[in-house]
Amino acid sequence: MTTTLPKTSLSFRDRMDVENGLVDRKIFSDDEIYQLELKRVFGRAWLFMCHDSQIPNSGDFFQTFMGEEKVIVVRNRQGGAEVLINACRHRGAAVCRAHSGNTSKFMCAYHGWTYDLNGNLIGVPGNAELYDKTIDRKSWGLGKAAQVMSYRGFIFATLDPEAPPLETFLGGAGKVMIDKLADYGDIEVVPGVIRHRLKANWKIGMENDQDYYHVGITHASLFDAWQSSRAEVNQQYWIDNKGDIILGEYGHITDTMPGHFHSSIFPHMSLLTDLLQVVIVRHPKGPQELEMLYFTFVDKNASPEERKAVIDRNIMRLGPSGMVEQDDGENFEFCTTGSASQLLRDRPFNYQMGLGSAKLKEGDDRDFPVFEGDRTSEVYARWRIQCWADWMDAENWDDLITNHSLPAAR
Amino acid sequence: MTTTLPKTSLSFRDRMDVENGLVDRKIFSDDEIYQLELKRVFGRAWLFMCHDSQIPNSGDFFQTFMGEEKVIVVRNRQGGAEVLINACRHRGAAVCRAHSGNTSKFMCAYHGWTYDLNGNLIGVPGNAELYDKTIDRKSWGLGKAAQVMSYRGFIFATLDPEAPPLETFLGGAGKVMIDKLADYGDIEVVPGVIRHRLKANWKIGMENDQDYYHVGITHASLFDAWQSSRAEVNQQYWIDNKGDIILGEYGHITDTMPGHFHSSIFPHMSLLTDLLQVVIVRHPKGPQELEMLYFTFVDKNASPEERKAVIDRNIMRLGPSGMVEQDDGENFEFCTTGSASQLLRDRPFNYQMGLGSAKLKEGDDRDFPVFEGDRTSEVYARWRIQCWADWMDAENWDDLITNHSLPAAR
Amino acid sequence: MTTTLPKTSLSFRDRMDVENGLVDRKIFSDDEIYQLELKRVFGRAWLFMCHDSQIPNSGDFFQTFMGEEKVIVVRNRQGGAEVLINACRHRGAAVCRAHSGNTSKFMCAYHGWTYDLNGNLIGVPGNAELYDKTIDRKSWGLGKAAQVMSYRGFIFATLDPEAPPLETFLGGAGKVMIDKLADYGDIEVVPGVIRHRLKANWKIGMENDQDYYHVGITHASLFDAWQSSRAEVNQQYWIDNKGDIILGEYGHITDTMPGHFHSSIFPHMSLLTDLLQVVIVRHPKGPQELEMLYFTFVDKNASPEERKAVIDRNIMRLGPSGMVEQDDGENFEFCTTGSASQLLRDRPFNYQMGLGSAKLKEGDDRDFPVFEGDRTSEVYARWRIQCWADWMDAENWDDLITNHSLPAAR
Amino acid sequence: MYLNAEAQNEIEQFFYEEAALLDEHRYSDWLKLFTEDCRYWMPIRQTRLATQMEDEFTKPGEIAFFDDDLPGLAKRVHKLESPYAWGESPRPRTRHMYHNIRAIAVEGAEITVSCNFVFYRSQLEDDVDWFVGRREDILRRVDGQLKIVWRSIFLDQTVIEAKNMNQFF
Amino acid sequence: MYLNAEAQNEIEQFFYEEAALLDEHRYSDWLKLFTEDCRYWMPIRQTRLATQMEDEFTKPGEIAFFDDDLPGLAKRVHKLESPYAWGESPRPRTRHMYHNIRAIAVEGAEITVSCNFVFYRSQLEDDVDWFVGRREDILRRVDGQLKIVWRSIFLDQTVIEAKNMNQFF
Amino acid sequence: MYLNAEAQNEIEQFFYEEAALLDEHRYSDWLKLFTEDCRYWMPIRQTRLATQMEDEFTKPGEIAFFDDDLPGLAKRVHKLESPYAWGESPRPRTRHMYHNIRAIAVEGAEITVSCNFVFYRSQLEDDVDWFVGRREDILRRVDGQLKIVWRSIFLDQTVIEAKNMNQFF
Ligand code: FES
Ligand code: FES
Ligand code: FES
Ligand SMILES: [Fe+3]
Ligand SMILES: [Fe+3]
Ligand SMILES: [Fe+3]
Q: Does domain E5-155 have CATH number 3.10.450.50?
């Protein structure tokens, strides 16, 4: 089997050979590619912002990112969600200094320009005395996301006015992924969003979510602590391994691993939805740095015991102190360093696990293709990276809609 | 009123629309523009070095910067001031390790090449034994500023041999700004120059000096501490607001605000000269970093009480621990970050305060135009940035002399 | 004598004027030049890895660098030394986490791919269950140096398959340098390799090794501590100064200074071999950073007293805490900063000491030219930098072999 | 309030012994310093508006970095002592430093002690992390020995910049 | 010279209480620890030639970062507690740590105490500063209570790299 | 084991005095704190496999950063106090901070004390280094005065990122 790639052309699709499971390592650390990602991926896609339950009332806000830039998601007086860029239009200073909270307006602490919950400029100190009322307020509101939509309480935003509606982007597959979490009841985010930075490329973090191959090794000490033998672990992840695999258009993915059911909405949102009830978002902060946000969901009507159980299962596993994820951070960083190797510049990363093992599932009546096969497989990573190339090669949304890959067995 | 700029041309003048008060945010964070600034602004202008009183005697020296590079201002035996680049001509090591002091010569601690107070190479260890006397000492003196001149004890230097004399550069307006401070008597710098770094663009710091708009908001807690009401503050800065405005050629500026009288000699020297007796210099250390130096001046013949009063007024207000400036640093950094926003790339900063409110003052007999109008205004910032564009667009000093903007009402 | 260089052409040879002792300062800090150095110097030359005695038994390993990248030198089961790139072929994570030790294999802690001591991929977890045995192990071994050879127990490696044999690269001169240390007996490396980083260019560090000019000044405090007068020091380094000078092809150098005999194998290995028994390697970590490794050698059969004496002589002098080298680090950093000066951009560094003082030695029967003259001289630095230009200008090894400079009096 | 020198000295020495166990990676021995009914808790800290600081830290029962009882801690200890704990392979060089140790409440057999901590960690070649914050411990004397009943750890950063928080505080 | 354990303990606890007040941003309470005639002084430190170190620090009456009497401190406190103190909005997470506390002189009712300090500050998301140096305090017992008569703060850096020095040391 | 408050206090004050001498660059006075037969030793720390940690530090007789007897220390002191000690020109601003001071063994007239240290150094304009680790001292009472018989310094970093280690720990 070949182990090299054709010399890189200008097309990103040519930076990989998904049939043979080869991917150019450079895409995980190169700055030029990253700058284009900010435009073509994060500048176009619908990005998860936060959940309705985090900002129930007018003035409630939550601060997150679109690409590298700070945005404020706020509940306006009309009951809608606004996504505002956290930079004053006068001279660019920040208008909000908190991760979350409640406010009636956003005031810039430099000269006091003030914006309402819709981002409109409503206050200009000295407007009469100093500006002679010449400031055209309508033109100087805060920058905003181009579109904001939500699906079952999950608020998304896009910077691209030409992006199709959220549900088109999600497709049947994407919706199912969110449904799985939303169906846990009348869900809400438990107070406390963990924020964690790593010196790693955001895509390497994403790939890990459906990577059941690393579990037995990376987390061996955990199973040791849990006294489950390697044999049991392998049985679970290597043998009892057949099942549904969902590959959605535009790069959405779900494994259906019992106790995991890790779903990813392209590009950077993951839902852990079987044992856990968690959303992880991985914001890029440079080609070799990311910031991860962790949201835990629980049914508002859950009993105190149920609620505690959900939270404990999560805390015990996730975040920089979680007994599972403690082990992952270092691997993300090592892989990012390895991807930048010049000596190995021409040796692609290996994505050959489960090549061709996923078959189209017959007689599944869902409105999107479902595959079946080994669920411990790199089929997820191959699909995501192939879709990523579609996004990177497309000139605009029309181009992407026309030319994006359709799920097929591989 | 328009709120956009024409697509950027190669001309810096086109990066702003001063008539409408719009300025391209990019100039406050872009590295390429910054590199050109080092050449066309800091490589050409007369830059303030220090004051005669800091180096009264032969061998007294003070270390500062020209652009990003370290220079030593030293009193030579002839009584003149030399500006020497702090890098040995042998292999580049530093020849001076102190901010200030007194020395009879500068010896490089690597191999001992020694330079006199004029920067001449006077000592080469082993000159006879090892070099067989072949070193041509005349050719290997320390690098020096192209010209050094002073005005009323303020020492300036330029890297451009073609720069016109200091007084031409200062012009009538610039001289008046220095006179205001020099006229406090037989002035000297009080020992203790504060050095403070911020992650901010140098121009954002400069603009703040004549920014009386931010005072009531940014420093609200100070007025609170001083128990002066917002009404009083507004009265002072918004209403009792008419007065002279001086816009000098090449970008020099003075407001005539009582108790302030903040003057700026382009590009990076500010004089606070009514209540305070201070000079601030803002050295660039990258597109998004600066180092500020603070000099306090007092009349040598002042009584101990007067002297203490001057110093106290200053300490209480300036520097990283000053009750006023404590509040400013964060704004400078926030604005610099905001200027780098890609999402707001096409939305210029707003410079619309007091558009057209400054009128030429009739019958003022000073040898430079004087304007009058609201003294809390962005007329200063507009003038400075327009002049900055002249500097950036000019090929050389001749070009600048021929094509620089002349002060006019705007 | 001229003190300027012709305007830089594309040739590196033109960045210096060795006849007149002038070298473009830019080569010590420019990033573009540095990137090319990684390819043309560190990507081609035979680089010292470690000594046989550090990895006597199968599985013993020592981690070091080739250029910027981490490599593992390991004793394989066949008794040979392998040089493996420390990055897993699956997704790039590190396969070895220690500076040195002993292991039977290298396992990647991410997914458990395992490599034998020859770098062959021998273990792929789930090979049958998950990969259906499709992984072509032969194609997925660790990256390796192109060639590994040793001379008298000193292990070298090169990344260039076309590099000539190690002994050709070393030549008669290079071999003599190693012989001098190897002849101390049945030598071994004393446990404890010091690793020290500096913000300095690697070439500036290298030049210091044959720089006897700085000794009396930089280390003046040491002689003070040792109570030897400046006169004595000068006598030793300036007067009792005549002797052999060895300039080897490709840039190898030896002074024959009593008590020093500092030899450098191009590009980055130095042997201190008269009073001391030490090897220093200077790994580049960017144009303005390096990491230095210190190896101390002693005769296995030395008496405890002799052994202690060797070690004490070394500890007392070298490394960040050594009484000699404590003084050097700062100079390396200062010179690197000075080399980046834009104001001095057109003023070359001075390499004029001992110009033309080294003459070819008649009737020396060694199989390489030997020169004689002042041993405190920049002849070494001139020769090294001229050879460096040969490496940088050559398209490949053939080109280098054909066009490299031959030692000649200068 | 403050304790007399002897009582203060006993508590300081108790914490210093504890720090030594952690920095020597003797986790099982460390575990013995906790009572059966202990709680080990590190809430999440969030950047909040000045007027809304009451929600700066998450509350018991909400999300936390650590919220362990003795069996939970025991699992973590087992893990750290496992031969497969790559994060401990090789062991990071950790240094726990306690400052400003103050008794802030005494209630029957239990005493509440506050201290500021600096937890320094150096791993592999050049990987350095600093964790800084305040700790609050409820100590109880159990047949002569001081034991930890409840430990609350209040970290000062709201965004964790370290690769992980494998070790204990 | 050094104090006996009890006297030393009292002073240490006094400083630890003080640090707690600062880190809890209880500035007005903190202010009460100073005497009417107090002085709070932080000179400027400059890089000087080795032979001219006597001028390393500016002298009283020359430029200083802080040179306040009680009313001056009160103004600063008032400012920090003002609702418009944006730098305190939200409050930075500060941690004052004192080390090597030593009595270096006793003169009548006044005792001079030296300590090394590490002042850690974490603000907003990822803005971290470290201030390190030595402090010298003259303490006086005023009706039973220790109070601060003169505080001198000697910072170790000559170029301040922090955004500001809003808080107290 | 731990000492009573008075004994503990004496040792803490002894170390604090010592730190003051170092930070005041009074190296000759500092040297007087050592006995004639003293040893001052800082082994090299290496990143090793977890299973081979016994070799993490070099052993006496192997390479070390410092391995001095009194005359050796005296040479270093002489050097630091020499007018040509460029590294001390100007003097770096150093701050030695000791934490978690514990007596870990008493044997006849000698007591072994462990402490964690943070050694902060600020030089020239903006050159800052942090050295963190653990120290172990054997102290002996010589006609009433405590003296240092053996000092072992265990640094936490394996790659020194500081420009040098000119000063003492
Ligand atoms: S920058 Fe926001 S009001 Fe001026
Ligand atoms: S670098 Fe200054 S004397 Fe050599
Ligand atoms: S990265 Fe090494 S096994 Fe996967
Ligand atoms: Fe994992
Ligand atoms: Fe201000
Ligand atoms: Fe040297």
A: yes
